[in-house]
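Exercise 7. Given the encoded structure of a 386-residue chain, write a plausible sequence.
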């Protein structure tokens, strides 16, 4: 007998729940205190009045979130571009699997651009480690997020994974609702992006087919995300040194809040998304290549990685970082002196923000350079040029 799961604990809020949740949120002092920063050009009373008229998830996206994200785009970027739209159908649900740079904005910017394009918006996978206050849980669930439980006892994780897998399959195949999920748990802080086979294994649990054919039914669409500048790069470098100096170091919840705020407010330069399109044909090919579950998982992960790596947008800073990191002039003809000086000035400014005990400038500089060089290195490898 097929197991029937209750998704209420992890699913986003539905239309009939949205208004009541929003009315709770406008009474939350911590959230209200941050609204002026979120909507700096609009009186808060006006925003609250607008919120009070919202009764559906779509209206929230169109009337509030789009307003917020348009402001973030105008104030902190040089433009956000969604490429590869010719590879997707507007009315078809996809499982967008992408590299992960920013805790909030990776998925938020994607939905912002999908809305402009007229395609189905995504539900968003978010780890429960980020939901440190009840109001944050309300805020993300009313914004199309579903919960990925991470810290449960090992004996419960199998059932949790099965429910999550069933929810994703139900959402994609029965509700025709797209999903965004990062290719790994947490951000790849060195930008060396790799898909976790455990993630693919979880997603395949809800089908009796082979791994590759199970994943094919989900219409996986690899998605490449490229930021010209990562405002959180220096915070990621700090964490690298803290873990180097103390292998037992654990992030405090306030660190995630700092990363969220820095990611939203910090300058990002140009931001480019590339949608690869569904990889159904390749998954069918993998299913024919081998019947081994582990080999199928490995091949699927490798192919998703290749799609993501091939379609990074490479900026001059990536090339400068590559040459500085590896002490080479491989790309020197592809950027001018001004572009090099701009990146080196930026690098120093980020290093100057770091104030930690036993600050290791050489180590920290190397780590930030890796963050900008690794996308280029992986793209060259995917193109068989390295």
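Solution.
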């Amino acid at each position: 007998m097929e197991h029937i799961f209750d998704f209420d604990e992890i699913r986003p809020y539905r239309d009939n729940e949205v208004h009541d949740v929003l009315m709770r949120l406008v009474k939350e002092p911590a959230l209200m205190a941050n609204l002026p920063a979120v909507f700096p050009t609009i009186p808060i009373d006006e925003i609250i009045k607008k919120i009070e008229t919202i009764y559906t998830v779509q209206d929230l996206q169109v009337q509030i979130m789009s307003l917020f994200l348009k402001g973030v785009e105008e104030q902190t970027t040089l433009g956000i571009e969604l490429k590869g739209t010719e590879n997707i159908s507007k009315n078809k649900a996809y499982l967008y699997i992408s590299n992960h740079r920013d805790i909030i904005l990776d998925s938020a910017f994607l939905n912002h651009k999908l809305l402009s394009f007229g395609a189905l918006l995504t539900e968003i996978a978010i780890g429960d480690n980020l939901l440190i206050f009840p109001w944050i849980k309300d805020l993300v669930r009313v914004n199309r997020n579903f919960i990925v439980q991470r810290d449960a006892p090992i004996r419960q994780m199998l059932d949790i994974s099965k429910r999550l897998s069933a929810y994703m399959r139900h959402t994609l195949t029965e509700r025709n609702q797209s999903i965004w999920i990062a290719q790994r748990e947490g951000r790849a802080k060195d930008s060396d992006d790799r898909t976790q086979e455990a993630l693919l294994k979880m997603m395949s649990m809800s089908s009796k087919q082979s791994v590759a054919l199970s994943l094919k039914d989900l219409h996986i669409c690899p998605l490449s995300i490229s930021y010209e500048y990562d405002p959180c790069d220096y915070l990621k470098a700090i964490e690298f040194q803290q873990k180097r100096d103390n292998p037992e170091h654990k992030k405090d919840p306030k660190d995630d809040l700092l990363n969220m705020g820095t990611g939203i407010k910090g300058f990002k330069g140009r931001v480019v998304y590339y949608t690869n399109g569904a990889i159904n044909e390749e998954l069918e090919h993998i299913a024919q290549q081998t019947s081994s579950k582990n080999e199928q998982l490995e091949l699927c992960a490798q192919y998703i990685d290749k799609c993501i790596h091939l379609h990074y947008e490479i900026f001059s800073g990536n090339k400068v970082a590559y040459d500085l990191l590896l002490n080479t002039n491989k790309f020197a003809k592809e950027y001018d002196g001004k572009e090099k000086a701009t990146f080196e000035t930026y690098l120093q400014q980020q290093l100057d923000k770091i104030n930690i005990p036993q600050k290791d400038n050489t180590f920290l500089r190397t780590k930030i350079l890796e963050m900008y060089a690794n996308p280029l290195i992986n793209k060259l490898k995917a193109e068989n040029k390295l």
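Remark. The two ends are 51 Å apart (CA to CA). Students should compare their own answers with the one above.
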